[in-house]
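SAMPLE LOG
Freezer: B-3
Tube label: C17
Construct: single chain, 299 aa
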Amino acid sequence: MYHPINEPNQKKSCLQVYISWTSYINLVISIAALAFGIYIGVKNKSVWSNSSFDWNKTLIALLIAGSVFLLLASIAGICGGRKQNKCCIFIFQILSIILALFFLVAGFIFLGLTDSHFTDIKDSTCQDKGSNGTEIFYYGQEAYNSAFSLFCTQRCPCKVTNTEVKSYITKNYIQMVPFMQDNGSVKVQDCQDYKTVFSNSDVKNQANWLQSLEDSFDCTGMCKKPANIYFFSDINNGIPDNDTCKEKFQDFVQSYGRVAYIVGLIVGAYLLINAILAFCLCCRKKNSGQSLYERFANY
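STRUCTURE (predicted):
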């Protein structure tokens, strides 16, 4: 009787095993990076969108695009390693090199960009309109000065229900005490004369941004504080921190750039090392006459 001979399974090369495991790790990284990109795109969205430094969308778009391509590279690597598909391994190698350079270059670009913006913000004194987008601080300070002249005054009494805030105002801002009333406003935008006082459109346009700064960073005032209370968000949120909103925003911009740089450097270096190691494995047999494709997909 004929008995078929069971042919032994072909043993996978070091390259196949290496790419398979690396691809699984890349898959996890790509999903994490994609989720991180969506998260930071939603978080503090109003802080960016209402300022003239709105390059956050560019960073998020690049991060998401890089994550999607890394996901594709991971799938190609898994197929190449498990199915012994030379074309998939070739695609994995090429995408790994491209993505490594992409993340490294993007990290350095955004580090330089945020450092430049940090310097511009730090140098702004809110005394002139300036340039490079720093006019937002001039108009922001004007908005706070206008808010101080209207909010918690006879023209616009304020409604203070927070006992800590009420005690703080009573101790530090005597002129506001008579104008804390139960039927008052909780922020300057609710004042009846808001549109009249904020007739300058450039100043009025800062209200949404200043509200997002106060909500996000627990701050008040731009370069200086007319009073240490919230003007554009609910006054009953408590007592703002000691730093002004400009100081909080400049620290935020700098830390944002550092995070982008570190993430780009780590991911880029990791992918570059993987690509180099895999390339070395591919070229371990230096057969003459092999094309680049054959070397990348060599078993």
